[in-house]
Write a structure and sequence with these properties.
Blueprint (H helix, E strand, L loop, with lengths): L5 H12 L5 H8 L3 H13 L19 E9 L4 H12 L4 E6 L6 E7 L2 H10 L7 E7 L14
Antiparallel strand pairs: 1-3, 1-4, 2-3
Helix pairs in contact: 1-2, 2-3
Length: 153
């Protein structure tokens, strides 16, 4: 675990819960003074343990009420087809997450759309038209049981 001690893990837990926490409050919570706490954050950033800071957004509040998980199989799993597919997916704002997979499907996508009509338009006008796509399987989740940002322990 990259030589992280309990203080480092505490810093990561606190930042994961609230990346806007002040260094003063963070240092108090992990039992350090502000300067060493700030130094540890910089080290975690330079080692690539902390890769950035972001905001969690409730997609439903923006009108994207429907998530669909889509498994995609390509006709040929050669580098040029994989790269071509990935480049095409980069231009699809509906695709929030895209994973290259092992098993009988090549990619797993999380698609965020307003409704089934928008999903159908995405499916028929965009996804099925990407060169090399041979089959698609969609699943609509009922509810999220567990969600997180990153595993720490």
């Amino acid at each position: 675990m990259q030589d992280l001690d309990d203080i480092d893990l505490g810093i990561l837990r606190e930042l994961q819960a609230d990346a806007r926490i002040s260094h003063q409050v963070l240092s108090e919570r992990v039992g350090l003074s502000p300067s060493p706490c700030s130094r540890r954050i910089r080290i975690l950033e330079s080692k690539g343990v902390i890769t950035g800071y972001s905001v969690h957004i409730d997609e439903r509040k923006l009108g994207f009420a429907l998530n669909v998980f889509v498994s995609v199989k390509l006709a040929h799993q050669i580098d040029s087809r994989l790269m071509s597919f990935e480049r095409a997916i980069e231009h699809c704002p509906e695709v929030v997450d895209c994973w290259l997979m092992t098993g009988n499907r090549d990619y797993l996508l999380r698609v965020s759309v307003r409704d089934l009509d928008e999903f159908e338009r995405f499916l028929t006008a965009r996804l099925t038209r990407i060169e090399g796509v041979s089959s698609i399987e969609s699943s609509i989740p009922i509810r999220r049981v567990k969600g997180g940002t990153s595993r720490l322990t």
